[in-house]
Design goal:
single chain; alpha+beta; 5 helices; 5 strands
Length: about 240
């Protein structure tokens, strides 16, 4: 009698080094996408106030963090929208389940005449070449469309996040310096308050301020100016 054969172990085609490379590539791609989203969101935010982004350049780590919060904020907003419209989500799930049920239902195969095998060899070769060309064209077109949609999605998320942040801050600023929860600042020069407003953005050389009186965005140089917190923030409770 021959000894029973030991069952062969299933070997995964991906080893540890390959898996580590895939994980590193995935996180690298995510970092690039977050950088793009953060940059687009910042541009959209400043553009909402009519402010030039050129004097407010941000570092790569700042853009990554901004991109992360932008994506996270839009994800939370999407979940909130789905929760408010749960009946539409449930309807979509049921229709999708019905679709898969119909696909998995047994069908009766219709016997047809195998006309393809009766064709001459040169006609079959021509049909194969045409089908191969159509398949390659479809794959190429699908790749271009998916790439375009992915790039458009990155831009749309960044623009939506920047506009949403600006609109939320605009609603907060509309309450005025006394009622708004955001910091209100005084722009002081030569011991005189030139104007009062809300800080929008800042760099090492310039600051962007929403003038509380005119409701317009203003960009001024830091040199010669002092930025003081509004008196409301300095009052004792």
């Amino acid at each position: 009698m021959t000894a029973p054969e030991s069952p062969q172990r299933l070997r995964l085609p991906i080893n540890g080094l390959t898996l580590l490379s895939l994980v590193a590539s995935f996180f690298g791609a995510c970092a690039v996408l977050l950088h793009f989203v953060g940059d687009i969101a910042h541009r959209q935010y400043l553009g909402f106030w009519g402010i030039d982004r050129g004097v407010f350049q941000k570092s790569a780590d700042w853009l990554l963090i901004n991109g992360y919060y932008s994506v996270f904020g839009q994800f939370v907003a999407l979940l909130g929208t789905a929760w408010k419209n749960w009946y539409w989500v449930l309807t979509a799930v049921l229709l999708l389940g019905l679709y898969f049920f119909l696909l998995s239902a047994p069908t009766r195969r219709i016997q047809e005449e195998d006309w393809y095998t009766k064709l001459p060899a040169h006609w079959r070769r021509l049909i194969n070449c045409i089908l191969l060309s159509a398949w390659l064209g479809t794959v190429l077109l699908a790749t271009v469309l998916l790439s375009t949609l992915a790039m458009g999605a990155v831009g749309a998320i960044g623009e939506l996040a920047g506009r949403t942040t600006a609109e939320r801050r605009q609603a907060e600023f509309a309450k005025g310096c006394q009622a708004a929860s955001s910091f209100c600042i005084d722009v002081v020069k030569d011991d005189q308050i030139r104007f009062t407003g809300f800080l929008l953005d800042s760099s090492s050389t310039h600051i962007a301020v929403l003038d509380a009186a005119t409701r317009r965005g203003r960009v001024i140089e830091r040199a010669g100016f002092e930025i003081a917190a509004h008196a409301k923030r300095l009052e004792a409770p």
